[in-house]
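Chain and conformation:
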Amino acid sequence: MNVNRIIGIFISLTILIWIFIFALSPQPKYQKFININIPELPMPIVEQDDLQSIQFKEVQNDFVGADIRDSLPSAKERIKKIDFNFYVYKIGVFRNQTTISKLVESFNDAGFPAFTEKNKSNKDLTNILVGPFASMKDIEDNKQKLNNIAEINVGEVIAWNP
């Protein structure tokens, strides 16, 4: 019984596949005939036989007066002159976590990134720093806004390396 079913399924699938092949294959009588004309390449103007063989000649450099000394400042000297420090604006030092959270949140809401750092001299206190800023000018331009947010008169600008 099982062999008869397998043979029947095999024959049915074979017939189905043949029907799909003929039914879904493109029929030439229903397709448009498209004629494509490919232009011929033009004949070359220059005859290959008339070309002379290329002769290579040694180039002589008689110009000895070239100055090859390096007159540009080295990259090391230029990097020493560039200031790679970032700057942060120290709002103050606080002990109360609620005050710290409110101040950090108010700076972040105003668009200034603020973060905290443990005070180095007294571990019970926490510094609130706003920034980093790319230059001192950025801090000077925003100092009034920063002071208004923290409701202080004076903050401290600190060079900061992450």
About this structure: The mean pLDDT is 77. Strands lie at 86-94, 114-118, 126-133, 156-160.
